[in-house]
Amino acid sequence: MNDSATGFGEILVSSRSLDEYRAMFALTDADLRRRILDCPGGAAGFTAEVCDLGGDVTACDIAYFDDGVARVAATAVAEADRGNRYVRDHADAYRWSFFADPDAHLRARRGSAQRFAAHTALAPDRYVAARLPALPFADNSFDLVLSSHLLFSYPDDLDYDFHRRALTELARVATTEFRVFPLVAIGSPTRYPRLDDLIAELSAAGVESAIVDVDYEFQAGANQMLVCTVR
Ligand SMILES: C[S@@+](CC[C@H](N)C(=O)[O-])C[C@H]1O[C@@H](n2cnc3c(N)ncnc32)[C@H](O)[C@@H]1O
Predict the structure, then answer these.
(1) How crowded is residue 93: how many other Cβ atoms within 10 Å of its Cβ?
(2) Cα of 114 to ligand 1 centre, how many Å?
(3) pLDDT tens-digit series, residues 45-57
């Protein structure tokens, strides 16, 4: 999967929905009333959907640089189609319960991409260009930070030091908590090999982590999140 806009050849700009975020991160209605950062936001419909419910979400992503939000919006459905082709070609690597079949996956991801695109035009300030491991936000800007399908997902592109610095940065901008999903690489059911080292480094910096099972497994083996509590 190539995406030249990201600068990382293998990273898709994907578009998960609020329903997927709820499941991946075990989000409660109370969570959705907190100030939330979605990092990376990609072309997810999450920010649009929560804001439509009266919530307060900011999305940030490297793909939003250089007027990239408009570019991401324009290509979001095509990216959803491209992601769906990958899923169809590797259907055995997925569990078909959250989505009944590849057609349901395509419908959901396309719908989410369309909500993202519409919302970027209505509320452009909700979409901020940012490149981990440095974010353009003050300390303690968000009550809850969510990070899906970047950290741990691409260990061949993003090294250990990137992960350490990125997690430290998520802690800096969170008042109390951040969550990361999943803990396995794309295409692999095996947990990120140096997760324990990262957890130890976070603990030394005052951030306590817990590995939590979630009631969501689309990619086989991707059914846990890291919940980090900032002291
Ligand atoms: C697979 S998408 C996930 C998007 C969204 N969280 C979702 O689940 O649908 C990964 C995103 O990470 C973004 N990305 C890659 N490297 C980044 C970096 N260093 N800082 C911020 N975003 C980055 C890509 O542009 C892409 O949109």
Answers:
(1) 17
(2) 18
(3) 999 999 999 999 9
